[in-house]
Amino acid sequence: MSKTTTYKTNHNTFGGVIYQSDFCTDYETTHNIAARIVSDWSFDKQCERNIELREMNQKYNKS
């Protein structure tokens, strides 16, 4: 018995900004990659909240 799994790709998130220095292994200072990832996740969450609020406003303003 074979099972087929379908994955849906979510294109509604911000992938972040990749800098040239991210690929440089000789770069002596920190890249702050973790901080940038957390910042991007926070941006995604804020966008989700804005979408939810917009949908709720549209729902209640139609009444």
Task: Give descriptors for this structure.
single chain; 1 helix; mainly alpha; 63 residues
What layout of secondary structure does this protein have?
Elements: H1 33-61
Describe the overall structure.
This protein is mainly alpha-helical. The chain has a domain at 31-61. The protein has one helix at 33-61. It is flat. The N and C termini lie far apart (51 Å). The mean pLDDT is 81.
TL;DR of this structure?
Helices cover 46% and strands 0% of the residues.
| Helix/strand order, N-terminal first | H
The biggest beta sheet is recorded as: none
Number of strands: 0
Mean pLDDT across all residues, rounded?
A: 81
Tally of separate helices = 1
Helix share of residues?
40-55%
Poorly predicted segments = none
Structural class: mainly alpha
Distance between the termini: 51 Å
Quaternary organisation: single chain
Please tell me how large the radius of gyration is: 19 Å
Shape: flat
Strand content: under 5%
